[in-house]
What we know:
Layout: H1 2-21, H2 25-35, E1 65-66, H3 77-85, E2 90-95, E3 98-104, H4 118-127
Parallel strand pairs: 1-3
Antiparallel strand pairs: 2-3
Amino acid sequence: MKRICSILFIVILLLFSVLYISDYNYFLTGVSKFYINGHVTAFLKDYESFDNRVIRTSKDPQPWEKHSFYNQYQIDLDLEAYHIKTQTVAFLVIKNDSLLYEKYYGGFNSGSKSNSFSMAKSIVSALL
């Protein structure tokens, strides 16, 4: 039994060593900073524990133009409940080439930082 435990310990030690020196060391960061602290999935402020890349601001930024009916629509109560339940932090509706509706939750605003999660996939899909 001692031999099996020793072999298992050595295998685990080797695995962690390989992860530490490889391009997969982010896995150890995730385990040590999140899972051990009780998080079982990504969360909005986990970006603070990882390297971040800054995207430089354009020299000539062009903000979304606001639609003539900007924020004049009432959001459906079921949709509002869904956003609160799923802890959405931002909800935007873009129609044609202008911003039709936007709303922020949980103390977030248009200048807040958070992870992009599926939002990035939506933008890439729209661009494709």
